Amino acid sequence: MLGGLTMSRGKINQIIRHIALLLFIGLVWGHNGKHPFLTPYISPGIQIGLNQNKTLFISCQLTLGTSFKITNEKHFEDTFPFFLGRTFGVRRYYQKEKPVFTYKYYDTQISFMLGGIGTGKLINSKGESFKKNKYWIGGLGLLTYEKIYFDDKVEKQYGLFGVFPLPIFQILNN
């Protein structure tokens, strides 16, 4: 369930196709490496993981954000980038012999080149929300650790994440 709506396998496949299209567009339209002080980006991501009870989960998300150059170097690669973003996603938990549980989530995040933190909410189909903190290390492939504060317990979750940040203006201006 997604906010009271059923998400079919076809819908999930459609989301995956859209993410693949965004990745292809990013690869086709490269750029010269020059970035202004602020660089807006969009970043699709897919995560697979386990919670502390060894329940499998899969997440699909989209992050909208901006990166900041901390120095005045000409090329982005010569700077120490700082990223702020807002993420929206869907997470499904797969338990043996139980129905699939689906949650929507959002979070605000801050990161540097190889790690970051975020805080937000996980929302079930009844509209109940639970605080969520996440931490990660990595570049395009991330190792993640999350703590979700359900009403009566704190659940730890571990995962692998693939993300692909695409600079919006560089794609549109090429």
Protein model, in words:
By secondary structure, the protein is mainly beta. The longest helix has 20 residues. About 20% of the residues are buried. The N terminus is likely disordered.
Write the topology of this structure.
Elements: H1 9-28, E1 38-51, E2 56-68, E3 82-94, E4 101-112, E5 115-123, E6 129-138, E7 141-150, E8 153-163, E9 166-167, H2 168-173
Antiparallel strand pairs: 1-2, 1-8, 1-9, 2-3, 3-4, 4-5, 5-6, 6-7, 7-8
SSE string, helices as H and strands as E: HEEEEEEEEEH
Q: Decide which structural class fits the backbone.
A: mainly beta
The neighbouring-strand order within the major sheet is 1-2-3-4-5-6-7-8
Helical residue percent band: 10-25%
Q: How many structural domains?
A: 1
Summed up, the helix count is 2
Report the sheet-strand fraction: over 45%
Shape: globular
Give the termini separation: 40 Å
CATH hierarchy, class: Mainly Beta
The CATH architecture is: Beta Barrel
CATH topology: Porin
What tags apply to this protein structure?
single chain; 174 residues; mainly beta; Porin; eight-stranded antiparallel β-barrel; 2 helices; 9 strands
